[in-house]
Amino acid sequence: MSINKHSPSMNPVQWRTLWISDVHLGTKDCKAELLNNFLKHHQAEQLYLVGDILDGWRMQNGVYWQRSFTRLIRRILKLSKQGVPIHYITGNHDEFLRKYANNALDNIRLVNRCVHTTKDGRRLLVIHGDQFDGVARATRWLKFIGDKGYDLLMFLNRCYNRWREKSGLGYWSLASFLKSRIKRAKTYIEEYENGVAYAASRQGYDGVVCGHIHHAAHKTINGIEYYNTGDWVESCTALAEDHQGQIHLLHWPEMKSLGGSDDSKELSEQASAA
Predict the structure, then answer these.
(1) Considering the domain 13-272 in this protein, what is its CATH number?
(2) Which of 8, 14, 112, 257 would you label with 249, given CA atoms 20 to 30 Å apart?
């Protein structure tokens, strides 16, 4: 997986397009402060929010809210007021918004799916992707079990990383480790990716941008460009299109630790190129 680098000490990188998904505002694991910082250092002509920005599932059991969540929403609203088109694609955790699809508030457009045309003319289907997840489409009871299992995993992840922080160690993702080590998890990811790419191919698109499974990726599957935005719960990743139409996978925590570098300067110049 290719990860591009950019130093936050530089002026904001100017992109043609940014894609972000799976922020899960309303949960303890949401990295809203990191995302807010990312948006300070990366500007785009248009922004796609590819589902699960709000976590309506968690809010049903009580609202957990931090000031960083409010600051992030204010930043997104500020971008809208500045004239940046924002496309909000609904996900399964914010599915309560789906009945309001095809409505707009100023420059914020709420949709269930949409199409993005890159600078070099490729047509990309943009969709959250939960409809290609067998568990997300399963019975309410099975969804409950899967959801609670993920809650437990993230609880253990928080506990372990609190210990690592006290020990002077950096963040380590238990979920990412399991995804890369457990055969069934790897098979699930591959099946999901193949299913999404196949659907995009059948509908005549050149590629697809999705989220949902919290596994950032850029790969070609049977001639279809598959892009997954990742998440802002663990990996803190986004997709960015430069002004030549090339799409980059960005990893913000790694970029923040780089400082000034030739790689970051090159990326900034590439993104801003006409």
Answers:
(1) 3.60.21.10
(2) 112
